[in-house]
Specification:
This protein is mostly helical. It is built from 6 helices and 2 strands.
Length: 130
């Protein structure tokens, strides 16, 4: 039995499943609606949904005859937390490498910092945090 994090990453490894999650992030919907953008059979879409359900990323409700699919983002939060630990690790190491290189060649370091100040800041999409 794999752990929950492994199930989450395995589910996210497929672009079709990521597209399904992106659609469900907009709100719950039926399997038929989820299948529309894909050139695959309904059983194939259902298999993708089963993988997402096993990972805990998708749940299904029941409203009379309608069984809407909905996103459950809790496993994504766990995956993001796991990734964040490694981002901090690499960020600290890259900063240390930059300081070391600055000490080796202080003139080049000054020039690089001046160039960075002249570069335009990257644009962000509306509502996106830097």
């Amino acid at each position: 039995m794999q752990d929950r994090l492994s199930h989450t990453f395995a589910a996210l490894a497929d672009p079709t499943r990521r597209a399904i999650l992106a659609r469900l992030a907009l709100g719950e919907t039926s399997v038929t609606e989820l299948a529309k953008p894909f050139k695959m059979s309904m059983p194939a879409v259902s298999k993708h949904l089963k993988v997402l359900e096993r990972a805990g990323l998708v749940g299904r409700g029941r409203e009379a005859q309608w069984r809407p699919c909905r996103l459950d983002a809790t496993p994504l939060k766990d995956a993001a937390s796991w990734i964040e630990d490694y981002r901090r690790f690499w960020s600290a190491h890259i900063d240390a490498l930059e300081r070391h290189l600055d000490r080796l060649n202080p003139v080049q370091a000054t020039n690089n910092k001046n160039k960075q100040q002249l570069r335009p800041k990257p644009r962000t999409r509306r509502g996106e945090k830097k």
